[in-house]
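Supplementary Methods S3. Input chains for the assembly prediction are listed below.
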Amino acid sequence: MQGTRLDTDYRHAAPVSGSSVGDFIELLKPRVMSLVVFTGLTGMIAAPGTIHPFIGLVAILAIAIGAGAAGALNMWYDADIDARMARTAARPIPRGRMTPGEALSFGAVLSVFSILTLGVLVNWTAGLLLAITIGFYLFIYTMWLKRLTPQNIVIGGAAGSFPPMIGWAAVTGSVSIESVLMFLIIFMWTPPHFWALALYRCRDYERVGVPMLPVVAGPAETRRQIWFYSLLLVPLAMVPYWVGLGGVLYLASSAALGAIFLYLAWRVRKITEGREADVAAKQLFGFSILYLFLLFAVLLGEHAVARWVA
Amino acid sequence: MTDLNQDERERKRRQRMRSLAIGLALGALVVLFYVATIIRLGGNVLNRPM
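Predicted structure tokens for the full assembly:
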């Protein structure tokens, strides 16, 4: 089953009343988009130099639309497995509210427009990074790795790590150690975040043949890997202080939040049976979102205040 | 028959909304490019040989 597409009847389900504007918005994965906008904005505010507020707004808009377009293309390609997973079965294509062709053209048009807009109106370094992000998410993650290897989200996670780099590049026109560091933090955060979810959604992935780590290597190995990546993530998330990207408040927040993250990851590793094991995984998954949000919020706050005071 | 008419009306309503959304998006894009171009050109808009 691995590496192959599954046969379902969603392709024959013609929309009865046509797709609505809301369906197209849903295709953009607004929740993922909001995190992308937030980390992209942080990269932009943290970058040295200035950007005209309107051009900054254009950059954020283009990053958001580009990320949404990648989401739409992902829903187009993955509609067969989405239809068979509880978490994704209500999406517009599996529900027959939209044809796959509509989603494909919508995603493709928005991808091209967002890359061109960012390139022409902001700069081509940012435009190129956005193109890499969309291409990586669609071709490397969605089409290639997701159905092939349990390391899918480790490598595929790179796509979600680019936004702060794009924001940074929108201001500076370049890539630097600080923006690579923000990339690495999200990159290291993705495996424990997703595997915590996969631990309690294991059956869903198993049914559709997606080789997520708990399906292929088992929950015990997944718990070990979550712990391993958490041990890498927490000290890495403190490095911004040492390169001057984050201040003392960032260091203190990063240390405190990291301690909670490690505690929850340790619980996931130790509690392996029954409902409590699911609860521990859900707690880590929930906290991981808050963790990343707060890390970037503190970075954003520190730089915004510094700019305001200067 | 009534159901069919209702379906058709609903389909047309959604189509109208989609067309409206596309129109608004294209309009916003035009404004976006216009304003961004003026900002990027800055004072150079007026700085040209007569």
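Chain A touches chain B through 15 residues (CB under 8 Å). Residues 82 and 88 of chain A are 5 Å apart (CA to CA).
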